[in-house]
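Handout, section B. The chain below has 442 residues.
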Amino acid sequence: MGAVTSSRTVRLRAAVRRAPRALYEELWAAPADRVPRMGEPDAPVWRPSLLVLLIIAAACFAVPRTNELVTEASDGVSGWAVLAALAQSVVLVAGMIRPVGAWWAATALSVTTVLVTEPVMSPDRLFPWSVMGMVFQGGALFLLALRVPLRRATGALALTLLAGMALTLHQTQRHNLDLDRSAPVFVVALVLGAALRSLRLARKDLVVQAGLTAEERARRTLLEERNRIARELHDVVAHHMSVISIQAQVAPHLVEHPTEELRENLTGIRENALEALAELRRVLGVLRSEDAPARSTRHAPQPGLDRLGELVATVRSAGLAVAVSTTGAPRPLSPGVELSAYRIVQEALSNVMRHAPGASAQVVIGHRSTGLTVRVVNSPPERPATPSAGVRHGLLGMRERAAMLGGELATGPTPDGGWEVTAILPAGTGTTEPDTTTEEVP
């Protein structure tokens, strides 16, 4: 039993020795929350209004506080009482900038004011805090709780109540003690300040989380579009590799007496083609396994400019007026270029239907010697579009397709209030010179 008591005594002494250090760290050394500048996401919208109201309240507080102290003070301390009231008003305003230091100053001023005026004050006066004294000390606690964690604010409340209890032990005459009245006032001030601080931090976390969600959504959309491009390129490349393999296998039978070197070379070409095809399927197998389409759709040929008429017909059936024209002489293009051009037109028309209700669109496919130009322009919308959260993720996919081919994509509003999408895609094959003929596609 004695050992247990001795151990508790040792722990108690250690806690007492650590108390000054903990008090210094919690209520002096540790900084308060940084005040966000106006315009930052977590800047409280009510802070300027609170500062103005606080200055007005401090000015209004100085008058009754001065009257209260001067009325109860003797001639010898009346001048000091006026200075104390003005200092308390300044401390309240300083609490918006340095809440920890302002609370210490408020507590010191309250204790000093009570010690100086107590011998000459009326015995009927509430002690140790008068009504204005409770307002002053509660305001300091409120401003402190706005900027520090609840644990630190609770420690400040405990020290405030301990200071009040210590003052009651040093009274020179009997007074009406008001600790049972002042304690609830201080607790309410602390709880209100802590609640507003929690609301501000929650709003900050919400803004940060919304930004991260938008970035993650954009990144995911970009990755999904890249996966889609990879799957489509897999179909295109796999088709050509399969053709190479078949041609290499059939080629020896097209020659009457193929040499052994020719057979070996063709066999090597076929083996390399099959190996490359297997490697391609192995690398892109994961993309195939995620959200894999139906078997009939998976083996269907990827769309190109030859299916642009079907796309336009589908869009027209949805109510969008679309005019399609072709400039220059059509020329053979690589499957990747045709697929990207088709997808860009598809996404641009989808954006018109989503973001420009009632508008009409014009699609211009320009064949040039150096590549292909795809231009989609829509007129101003006839009515506002339904607001949608997020950014234009479709533009990410179009820009990714153009960059993949070494091309460029430009988007932006037109002078009349419409929207324009222009993509310049390098040609894969072909050397036909362009001409100035224009063909209207029904």
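Note. The chain has 13 helices and eight strands. Compare this with the example in section A.
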